[in-house]
Design a protein that fits this description.
Layout: E1 8-10, E2 24-28, E3 35-40, E4 46-52, E5 59-61, E6 64-66, E7 71-76, H1 79-91, E8 102-103, H2 104-108, H3 120-126, E9 131-136, E10 139-144, H4 146-167, H5 169-172, H6 176-187, H7 193-204, H8 208-213, E11 218-219, H9 238-252, E12 256-257
Parallel strand pairs: 1-7
Antiparallel strand pairs: 2-3, 3-4, 4-7, 5-6, 8-10, 9-10, 11-12
InterPro entries: RNase_H2_suB (IPR040456), RNase_H2_suB_wHTH (IPR019024), Rnh202_N (IPR041195)
Keywords: Nucleus
Subcellular location: Nucleus
Amino acid sequence: MAASEARVLITHCDEDTSAFQRHFLHLRNPVSGKQACYVVGCDGRLQELNWSKQRHTAWFIENSVCADGSLYLATPVDPLFVILPILEQLRMKKGDDMGKFRSLDDIVSVDGYPGYECLRPYLQRSLGIICESREVGEDMFYRLDDSKVLAWLLCKVAKLSEALKSSSGLFSGLHPNELNVYVIKLLGEYLKMDPWVSPICKHLGVDTDALKTARASFVPCMPAPSKTPESKGNKLNGPAAKKAALSKNSKLSGASPKITSFFSKPR
């Protein structure tokens, strides 16, 4: 039997990668609905798995070389983002009818995805954040509540905005509306435009058309340095001056792509 090939995984858990074999699971991507890979860390937190592979790369692991130079990065994600489209589908809302209440067994029973069962402990504690709940006997039943979802998402926007501003002066210099656009674009990786992103935009006064064209996949660039007087001896004219200006502008307008742009979702 051939030995398994080594892979490099960066995660919040300090255990050996062999201990993660039973923690890998497949869930639906909350936006596309396609199969996506997740991992439950040793602390019980759900983490989404991203994969990156550059050309001509390898890893040196102890005294051996791993020819596969790919990198797996597991980052924590709120399970409520993952379960949100399931709750939306299960309540079967129609017009003024707010829909049906569902048991936790119904919520985690997704055809072809037994991994949702791993979310049960967290959902038992957290479904009340975005759902209306009713107790019948010893059982609890849940129904998605739009007002609670909006309040939860606005809280996410506020916390993420504060985290970005405290992490870098680049974000603290943004106009509040520009920062809101950036944050909503980030959350849009886990939310569908309708029915979730549009209400956020309406509440915060963000134009949805501007949101679609905004370049929020890039970190804001540093402001241009103040202009310094040029000596007459170094002053350029004609084509040479135009070329120098274009070169300078291209350097100042450069922006750093966010880290997720380097990764894809493993299936």
